[in-house]
Design brief:
Elements (H helix, E strand, L loop, with lengths): L4 E5 L4 E6 L11 H16 L5 E6 L10 H6 L5 H24 L4 E5 L3 E2 L1 H7 L3 E5 L6 E2 L13 H9 L1 H9 L3 E2 L1 H7 L4 E3 L4 H11 L6 H4 L8 E2 L2 E2 L2 H19 L4 H13 L4 H16 L2 H18 L15 E5 L3 H12 L3 E5 L3 H20 L5 H9 L1 E4 L10 E4 L5 H12 L7 E4 L6 H5 L8 E6 L8 E6 L5 H13 L3 E6 L6 H17 L4 H10 L6 H8 L1 H15 L7 H12 L12 E3 L5 E3 L2 H5 L9 H21 L6 H12 L8 H9 L1 H15 L7 H8 L6
Helix pairs in contact: 1-3, 3-12, 5-6, 6-11, 10-11, 11-12, 13-27, 13-28, 14-15, 20-22, 20-24, 20-26, 20-27, 21-26, 23-24, 26-28, 28-29
The chain binds 1,4-dihydronicotinamide adenine dinucleotide.
Pfam families: 3HCDH (PF00725), 3HCDH_N (PF02737), ECH_1 (PF00378)
Family: In the central section; belongs to the 3-hydroxyacyl-CoA dehydrogenase family. Belongs to the enoyl-CoA hydratase/isomerase family.
Keywords: Fatty acid metabolism, Lipid degradation, Lipid metabolism, Lyase, Multifunctional enzyme, NAD, Oxidoreductase
Length: 720
Amino acid sequence: MTELFTYAIDSDGIATLVWDDPNAPVNAMSQAVMTALNRVITDLVNNAQVTGVVLTSGKKEFVVGADLKEILSWESGERERDIAVISEFIQSIHAVMRLMETAGKPFVAALNGSALGGGMEIALACHYRIAANQPKAKFGFPEVTLGLLPGAGGTQRLPRMIGVEAALPWLMQGLQTGAAQAQAAGLINEVVDATQLLAAAKQWLRDNPNAQQPWDQNKSTRHTVRLPGGEVQSAKISQVMMAAQAMLRKQTHGNYQAPQQILQTLYEGCQLPLEQALQLECRHFVQLLLSNQAKALIRTFFLGLQDVNKLKARPTDIARRQFANIGILGAGMMGAGIAYAASAKGLDVVLLDTSQVQADRGKDYTRRLLDKKIAAKKITEQHAKAQLTRIKTTSDYQDLSDCDLVIEAVFEDRAIKAKVTAQAEAVIGADTMFASNTSTLPISGLAAASQRPDQFIGLHFFSPVDKMPLVEIIVGEQTSQQSIAWALDFVQQLGKTPIVVNDSRGFYTSRVFKTYVLEGMALLKEGVSPALIENAGKMAGMPVGPLALSDEVSLELMDRISRQTQQDLGDAYVAHPGDEVVDFMVHHADRLGKKAGRGFYQYTDQGDKSLWPGLAEAYPVAVQQPTPAHVKQRLLYAQAVEALHCVSEGVISRPHEVDIGSIFGWGFAAHTGGILSFVETIEGMDTFIRNADALVEQGGDRFRVPHMLRELAETGGSFY
Ligand code: NAI
């Protein structure tokens, strides 16, 4: 077995220290690793023969951060104890880094691959950073996306190195870039060919035997932040901070704790000597780590996304299927988008529509996207040409005969969908899968038109397909386990994130999403001011207010779906107060949505929008207005209760998928870590039930939580 750290000393006394954790696929900072690192660095520092150290990795990546799973496992629930234990670990990291910085021997980070989070921080604690020119390597500080701050000195070393203003986006937005951009920003000093990496690092050490960190060079200036061009005045820092604070409030409505704390840590820390600043950073880090928000974000984006993308839902006894050639029926908005996404991943695509002209129009969509990428220098013309030739357009069903999978994305009309299903099945091979991209029609009903309903599945993509990461896989009554496994393989091949959902009206995402916009309309009907509704939606963390979102989706479409549902369900249909508003807008006010240029808002050709003045007449604003907090609560609770019903009815069962589906599918408030996380971690089940019960009193049964939640709360259970 390889050792965690090994080193060799050359004839110049330069030690090349290789970090290669034999127990993990990547190098990360755990307690055992930091103890070993401390030991080896102490050895090297004390070894008189050693004149300098190159720190590099034996993995593909350099170092990718701290082992968060381990840190969270130390939590006992006893706050003081937890703070002490975690702080001790963080301080052990600081100690190693300070030892490297002040040992009187130069250290170079030879970044053979990605350096993220703690990995980038250890690189900053070296006197110089050289990266290998690896196209896929990423550099930056993603901690903020997990509700944390870079806790291994990043918030203090980076601004002292590149300046406060330049450091902010890296720390507060979790920017991650390739080597060239990181070099331009000053995070990395040099980028060289991979084969030259170690030689370049050693050369630098030979040339700089007395290297010192900027903050250790001149003791008299260590109380102020050094910028590349000199020192910065406190007044200037305050100015930068105030601007950043204002921007943050505008962008996040105060929903995210981490960027707020990063700003504060930076501001306070920059006025202190480094050692004290590191202590301060440690306190803020531990505070964030123990917050509910960080717990929620880590569970969803770190553990949850890993779980979902590792296809935990996939039946294990079925061999993996590699897709080479897919057919798409309907070259409209969705069909064209799917053709782009599949061809981008190297699949051959047959794009079929009612005429060659229509099909070609669908292919033009890919051409336009590729042209933009060429203009932005993201791809070469050659690359674009190769992708385009993978899309064959046609109106002839015979061209589908070699496809492994056919996805229909024709009009949302049962009869048309049934017709194209039969036409395709007449020519495709026996093990070709068939999928529908329907957004609302139950899959089992559509599968009735198929000769092989076991191979019929729902693949619900989101628009625009090239940007949206989620695909909702819908399992019909007769869909086989094999089809589920293969659908998951296909979604993974596209590089998208799947959630698996059982067939039901509106599936999971459309069903819950609808409650957000309808709740907005119910509030409107009650006389709540539209501006308050829209602002409360954004303050709740939703990307767009519910009324603007209804316009985007199209009121006309919502009306059509609602009528279809009423017709299908008859007496079983449960009316929502928002239905009346949709009906009024479409059938009485002739305001169909954004596409028509008229909905809750009126739209100008220049792309501006303002609330439709007629709204005040149709829904007069009441004298008494609820608080923004109340409106916010209603908008979030309406969605959360519906999601809980989906779970309780077995429409969707894996909690990570419920959370990720809510954020990626319709933009549920991301700072909560997703919709179940909102209920369990942010609100707490007991509080959630109490608040929802109070809303039932005011708003009716749509806020009634399922029995499952009460049981779980009573037994102290968890969704996860
Ligand atoms: P669209 O109207 O842009 O495109 C439909 C295409 O199907 C048109 O190009 C049409 O010529 C073609 N078509 C119609 N009948 C055909 C036939 N018999 N044979 C071959 N092609 C035929 O519609 P869009 O928006 O692309 O929607 C397609 C499907 O995707 C629908 O089922 C819709 O519910 C679903 N969907 C739509 C989303 C959206 O945001 N628009 C999101 C997710 C799913």
